[in-house]
């Protein structure tokens, strides 16, 4: 390794196993709550089956527990978690002690279990004697939204530190999507990045997006005055900005006079409308040029030269070259340096379906010692990223933030789906494999809930869940549908899988319960004329007094969500600790959980060769 500073101490495998065993004991009794679907809440009498307490008491205790954001004190950490208090009835398996339930769930959350390594300590160790190389004053929020900017900025700093610590320059971004992280790593830190995504749409979309950036860059790439050091001086007033844009329009007309080119690129494609309220803000920012795109997320950039480094070399279109004109010697020298920088700091988007058995050399011809990273890699891609790290000698380090736990494949899920795969997304570690542990899809789906957002009132409303559960009763009683198909089960769960074309947003578009039912039945292809208004409202009145049951039960599921996520992350960490050639591994909380709920990274480095 290039650095010799010791990395922060982490818990050993035996300690992690002890905590994993305790968590498993708790979840064995609690998983029925987590696996129950709120859609079936009334049709399957879920509250009566699983809870032996009045909903008012459950709500009181859970709200009090949620309001207490303090970590567990030392006596709570050490008292009684090897011998669980009586939380569930031994005969009926119903919940009987909600206070003990809340305390145990809090103990086994990532925040309190004590298995996470502080991000700040890791950065200090990684950045000792490290020289940061940047390609200029680049800010992530200049070309991506706030959430993505937060994630990219934090993770790229960590990745740069890992690369410097290991003495490597090549980074492989698995599941790179639009290439935000890859682009930023290449632009700001001078790393050679390959972004691999299984979707041609994403790969080509990244290139198309970069071509759009190049087009916007061309519009604003006017000759600017240079100071003594050859740096571009800032434009000082709105009139100067508008004059330069008009100058570019004139050059555009000179270079593209043919009818064909005029049809391909209209003025509205490249020149902002200054009558638009959004672009009025354009002229008020005197120190930056702002370009707004209605099809992409808001794009911002300070200097046309900084974008050249950002673009992949194959994203530059010949038709978008600047018109020939006289340039100063300083400007020519600046362009030469920019061109050399572009050749060295390349982001290359590639299309390939990555599995645990993928041969990286088949995808990347100049593969060398590298760092594999993944920002919110979906489903099995996160565990497969870890397996690639452990099995490929060229991969010296890994930094993986997973998401979409509901899409993980489970080896011991029952009934087992027909599948020929040998490597499953869960479990990974020996202990859970020996236990033949299975979470279940509903439990993994609940782990996708953002506990921190629910705590501050940003979760799903109880009313939306209530509407959906009552609709289920209507569909069962009036249409004879007892087992819900995929479409109806996902009717109001757009927050789990936003790309699913079947998922609707009916609740947010409905003015009342009656309107909601009418629209839902129509979407499901059921004859809505079969139900008069009175029948629909009778169902509403029947279940309205029991809405508090659904609210309390959903709070139980949300509290368990953090425990299920802890189990999944702890499984991955234990898997890494089981490998003999790994020098260091840890779970690190990277992001603000309110901005980015999936905030924990699995990080590891191999022993020095």
UniProtKB/TrEMBL annotation:
<dbReference type="InterPro" id="IPR029063">
    <property type="entry name" value="SAM-dependent_MTases_sf"/>
</dbReference>
<protein>
    <submittedName>
        <fullName>Probable methyltransferase-like protein 25 isoform X1</fullName>
    </submittedName>
</protein>
<feature type="region of interest" description="Disordered">
    <location>
        <begin position="323"/>
        <end position="342"/>
    </location>
</feature>
<dbReference type="Pfam" id="PF13679">
    <property type="entry name" value="Methyltransf_32"/>
</dbReference>
<dbReference type="InterPro" id="IPR052220">
    <property type="entry name" value="METTL25"/>
</dbReference>
<feature type="domain" description="Methyltransferase">
    <location>
        <begin position="147"/>
        <end position="230"/>
    </location>
</feature>
<feature type="domain" description="Methyltransferase">
    <location>
        <begin position="332"/>
        <end position="410"/>
    </location>
</feature>
<dbReference type="InterPro" id="IPR025714">
    <property type="entry name" value="Methyltranfer_dom"/>
</dbReference>
